[in-house]
Amino acid sequence: MYLGRNVKMGPYASISWDQVANQPFIPRLPDYIQSTYINATQIYSPNIFGGTIAIGSGNNIFKADNRGIYLGHTAFESASFKVSMDGKLTAVNGMFSGTIDGSTITGGTIRTAGANADRIELSRNGFNSYNLWGEKNGVSVDSGNFSSLDFYYRGEKRGGLSQAAANISLQSTMGDVIVQASTYGKTQFRGTVDFTDAKVKGMTAVFG
User: Fold this and answer.
1) What is the signed CA dihedral for 185, 187, 189, 190, rounded to 10 degrees?
2) Please, are residues 82 and 68 in contact by the beta-carbon 8 Å criterion?
3) 72 vs 62: CA distance, rounded Å
4) Are 78 and 70 in contact (CB under 8 A)?
């Protein structure tokens, strides 16, 4: 059957597609696509598979491909923000809220508040507490070869416990050093007690 232009069919007429010669190609959607709508500016679909998604141009771009998601550069390796397929997140800066759970946090400085507030900082140099003026205030733990636990007030060292070579030293830079047990406890010294360079007063020795 050959049909030209301006063919009119009656109300009970029918044409079988199998009888049409030179059938045009009509793409068929895969069975897993149940509902897809495409217009000039939008795509609606329950699932999109394959290829690369790119939004933007140059290095001002967001991309998603088989390496992960990334933005800030056309190359995954150079992007300032990226998440790999195994869940590794790389970012230059960020703000977080809520609970952060993790087994290991590596690098940089961890602080509990900004630079103009009372805070505690943990870095490769140790553990330090500061007041809002940036002065050491409270506990300071040095992580060097000759480590120490020091106590500060308004940037002034008041004393501490330090380790140098084989010696452990307890010092006060201003007031007394008080060693006191509980009401029903006792203070004990073991090993050799050397008072060679000390002045002892107010003590009654009891032997035996």
Assistant:
1) 20
2) yes
3) 7
4) no
Query: Could you give the CA distance from residue 112 to residue 118 in angstroms, rounded to a whole number?
Result: 8
Q: Which of 43, 47, 2, 39 is nearest to 21 (CA)?
A: 2
- Is the whole-model pTM more than 0.85? no
- pLDDT value, residue 5: 67
pLDDT at 2: 59
Three-state secondary structure along the chain? CCCCCCCCCCCCCCCCHHHCCCCCCCCCCCCCCCCCEECCCCEECCCCCCCCEEEEECCEEEEEECCEEEECCCCHHHCCEEEECCCCEECCCCCCCCCCCCCCCCCCCEECCCCCCCEEEEECCEEEEECCCCCEEEEEEECCCCCEEEEEECCEEEEEEEEECCEEEEEECCCCCCCCCCCCCCCCCCCCCCCCCCCCCCCCCCCC
Q: Quickly count: other Cβ atoms within 10 Å of residue 79's Cβ.
A: 22
Could you tell me whether strands 156-164 and 119-123 are parallel, antiparallel, or unpaired per DSSP bridges? unpaired
CA 150 to chain centre: 29
In tens, the pLDDT along 63-104 reads 999 999 999 999 999 999 999 999 999 999 888 888 888 778
pLDDT at 51 > cutoff 70: yes
Sign of CA dihedral 63, 68, 71, 73: negative
**Mean per-residue pLDDT, 115-129:** 92
